[in-house]
Amino acid sequence: xxEENDRKQRILTxxxxxxxxxxxxxxxxxxxxxxxxxxxxxxxxxxxxxxxFADLSCADLSFANLSCANLRFADLSCADLSFANLSxxxxxxxxxxxxxxxxxxxxxxxxxxxxLPKNTKLRYWKYMKNGKSxxxxxxxxxxxxxxxxxxxxxxxxxxxxxxxxxTIQWCLNDGRSADEFLQVEFKVSxxxxxxxxxxxxxxxxxxxIIKKYxxxxxxxxxxxxxxxx
Length: 229
Known about the structure:
single chain; alpha+beta; Pectate Lyase C-like; ADP-ribosylation fold; 4-stranded antiparallel β-sheet; disordered N terminus
């Protein structure tokens, strides 16, 4: 049934082994890929850089080469990603709900944090603007421990309830105008969600504010780390 729906929605005509295929955006149905291909999978592989917001729901992408593909905000729900090569693909905010896979090779590097002993203490970062977190406008005091009881463990949701923390690189890039950064500490057991499409941000239910840094101080720390590497 899924393959039949796939053909009706995306394959317009069959010309002796070559098919007229269209791929649309899921949000406004704008056609972003159109042409003759040997298969839908071939159309996807040959247009990897154009797939942001693409409607690829329920598509058979098993064994597809999607390395370095731009799949940001793409709808991959229920898609068959069995043995697909997703190395270095941009999956930020992509919908992977119910996607099929034999091996979860699309998981972010941060996911390995869950394999550490539960009592392991970790230190990551938050950035602030005008003394408040940019999205929830929360204020934090150095030395204080904060706990969230109403957190979301939904890893299909990139930003949700809980304390969102991140790598320092993510904070610097997302908060390009931010000049205040908080180093926070928590245990592995405090991690409630590492979003499947995360490029550096995840959620915890408890954290302690360790220290406050300016942007210059953070950059100096990174430069020093590069020199000693």
